[in-house]
Amino acid sequence: MQVSIDRIRKDIETICSFNATPGKGYTRFSYSAEDLKAREYLLSQFRDLGMECRTDPAGNLRARLEGSSPHAPAVMSGSHIDTVLHGGMFDGLVGTVGALEVARVLREEGIRPVHPYEVVVFAEEEGSNFGTTTAGSKAMVGRYGVEDLKKLKNPEGTSMYEAAKSIGLDPDKLPESILKPGDLKAMVELHIEQSVVLDTEELQIGIVEAIAGIRAYSLSLEGVPNHAGATPMTLRQDPLAGAAEIILEAERAARECATGSAVGTIGRIFCEPNVSNVIPGKVRFTLDARDVKTQGMDEVVEKVRSRMEEVAAKRKLSAEMKLVGESRAIEIGREMTELIESAAMKLGARYRRMNSGAVHDACLIADVAPIGMIFVPSINGRSHVPEENTRWSDIEMGANVLLEALLKLLF
Ligand SMILES: [Zn+2]
Question: Does 100 have pLDDT greater than 90?
Answer without folding.
Answer: yes
